C-alpha cells in the first residue's frame, strides 16, 4: 500500500498536475482581484456578472484538471491525485471568491460526482453515506463562507475545517469507488498538508494585495473626501482624450462644480465644519453617481472644486444627472454642531469637441462655464454657454 501511495503522489504526472493546479490558482487569484476591484466601482448588475464569471472559472478549472488527468492516464480519471487537485481548487475558491455562486458550485460538485457514479453503476449501496457526508460538507461550506477571515486567522479552525471538508469528500468518493480506508486517511493527510501550504501563500498574497490597495489609495484618492484626486484626474483625462480621438462619435462630457460660498462655512463654523461639508458633498455625489450610472468618474480637483468625467453621455444627459443629484443634496443637509446646513453648488458643463486640439482647450471652456454660473449669482448651471438658475 505504501508503494502504491508513493507511486500515486511522487511521479512526473503528479508533478505536472501540481504545477497546473498552482497555475490555475494563480490565474483565479489575479482574475478575482482584477474583477472585484472593478465591481466595486460599477453597477450591481456588473457585480452579479463578475460573480457568475468567477463561478464559471471554478467549474472550468475543474474541467481542465479532469481533461488533463484523462490525457495523462489514458482515459482513466479514478485517481486520488485528481481528487486532491480538484478539492484544492474548490476549497481555495471558497476562501478567495466571496460570492454565493461559488458556494453553490461547491455544493453541486459532490452531487454531480455521485450522479455520474450512479450513472456508471457505482455507489447505489452507499446512498446513506453520500447523503450524510453531503449534508456535513454543505454545513462546512456555509461556515467557511460566513467566517472566512476568522478561519484563515485561527489555525485550529482552519485545520478542523480542512479535515471536515476533505474527510466528507473522501467518503463521498469512497461511496462510489471504495478504496482502502487506511489509504484514504493517508490521502486526507496529504490534502490537509497541501491546503496548509496554500494557506501560507494565500495569507501573504492577501497581505501584498492589501498593501497594493493602500498604495493605490494613497496615490489616486483624496485623503479627506475619499474620491479620486487631482493626480488621478490628470492620468485619466490623458486616456479619455486619446479614446475620443479614435472614436469621436461617442460623447464625452466634463462637469465641473464647486460649493457655493464655501469660505462662509470655514469662517462662520470653523475648518472642521468646512471639512465635513467637503466630505458630505463628495460622498453624496459619489453614491448617487453609483446608483444612477456606471459612466461617471468623480474627482476632487482642488479646494472645493470637483470634476466629473462622463463617458458615452451627452452634455444634456449629464446636466439631468448632476442637477438631479444636486436636488437630493439639498434634501440632505450637513449636520454640524446641532445645525442643519444647506449646501448649494454651481456647475459648468461641456462635451469634448473635435475642434479641441488639446485637453486644456476643453478644460478651460468648462472652467469658464463654471465661472459664468457663479458670476450669474451662483446656484446656477451653465451648459455649453447657456446658464439656467437651479430652483
Automatic annotation (TrEMBL):
One of its GO terms (biological process) is cell adhesion involved in single-species biofilm formation. One of its GO terms (cellular component) is plasma membrane. Keywords: Membrane, Transmembrane, Transmembrane helix. The keyword Transmembrane applies. Pfam families: GGDEF (PF00990). The chain crosses the membrane at residues 12-34, 46-65, 77-97, 104-120, 126-144, 156-176, 182-202. Residues 250-386 form the GGDEF domain. CDD domains: GGDEF (cd01949). GO terms for molecular function: diguanylate cyclase activity. This is GGDEF domain-containing protein [Lactobacillus sp.].
Amino acid at each position: 500500500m505504501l508503494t502504491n501511495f508513493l507511486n500515486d503522489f511522487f511521479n512526473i504526472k503528479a508533478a505536472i498536475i501540481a504545477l497546473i493546479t498552482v497555475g490555475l490558482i494563480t490565474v483565479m487569484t489575479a482574475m478575482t482581484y482584477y474583477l472585484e476591484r472593478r465591481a466595486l466601482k460599477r453597477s450591481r448588475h456588473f457585480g452579479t456578472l463578475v460573480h457568475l464569471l468567477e463561478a464559471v472559472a471554478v467549474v472550468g478549472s475543474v474541467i481542465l484538471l479532469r481533461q488533463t488527468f484523462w490525457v495523462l492516464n489514458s482515459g482513466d480519471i479514478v485517481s486520488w491525485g485528481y481528487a486532491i487537485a480538484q478539492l484544492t481548487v474548490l476549497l481555495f475558491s471558497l476562501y478567495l471568491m466571496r460570492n454565493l455562486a461559488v458556494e453553490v458550485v461547491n455544493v453541486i460538485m459532490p452531487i454531480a460526482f455521485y450522479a455520474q457514479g450512479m450513472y456508471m453503476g457505482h455507489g447505489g449501496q452507499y446512498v446513506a453515506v453520500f447523503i450524510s457526508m453531503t449534508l456535513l460538507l454543505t454545513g462546512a461550506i456555509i461556515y467557511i463562507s460566513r467566517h472566512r477571515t476568522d478561519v484563515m486567522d485561527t489555525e485550529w479552525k482552519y485545520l478542523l475545517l480542512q479535515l471536515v471538508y476533505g474527510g466528507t469528500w473522501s467518503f463521498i468518493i469512497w461511496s462510489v469507488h471504495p478504496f482502502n480506508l487506511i489509504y484514504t486517511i493517508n490521502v486526507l493527510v496529504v490534502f490537509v498538508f497541501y491546503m496548509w501550504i496554500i494557506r501560507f501563500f494565500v495569507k501573504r498574497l492577501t497581505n501584498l494585495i492589501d498593501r497594493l490597495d493602500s498604495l493605490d489609495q494613497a496615490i489616486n484618492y483624496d485623503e479627506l473626501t475619499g474620491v479620486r484626486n487631482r493626480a488621478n484626474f490628470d492620468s485619466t483625462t490623458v486616456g479619455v482624450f486619446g479614446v475620443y480621438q479614435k472614436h469621436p462619435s461617442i460623447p464625452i462630457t466634463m462637469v465641473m462644480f464647486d460649493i457655493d460660498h464655501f469660505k462662509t462655512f470655514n469662517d462662520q463654523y470653523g475648518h472642521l465644519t468646512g471639512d465635513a461639508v467637503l466630505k458630505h458633498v463628495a460622498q453624496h455625489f459619489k453614491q448617487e453617481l453609483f446608483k444612477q450610472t456606471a459612466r461617471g468618474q468623480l474627482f476632487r480637483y482642488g479646494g472645493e472644486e470637483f470634476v466629473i468625467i462622463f463617458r458615452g453621455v451627452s452634455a444634456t444627459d449629464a446636466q439631468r444627472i448632476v442637477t438631479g443629484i444636486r436636488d437630493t443634496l439639498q434634501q440632505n443637509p450637513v449636520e454640524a454642531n446641532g445645525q442643519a446646513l444647506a449646501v448649494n453648488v454651481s456647475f459648468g458643463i461641456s462635451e469634448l469637441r473635435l475642434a479641441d486640439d488639446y485637453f486644456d482647450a476643453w478644460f478651460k471652456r468648462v472652467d469658464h462655464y463654471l465661472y459664468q454660473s457663479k458670476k450669474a449669482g451662483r446656484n446656477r448651471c451653465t451648459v455649453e454657454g447657456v446658464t439656467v438658475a437651479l430652483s
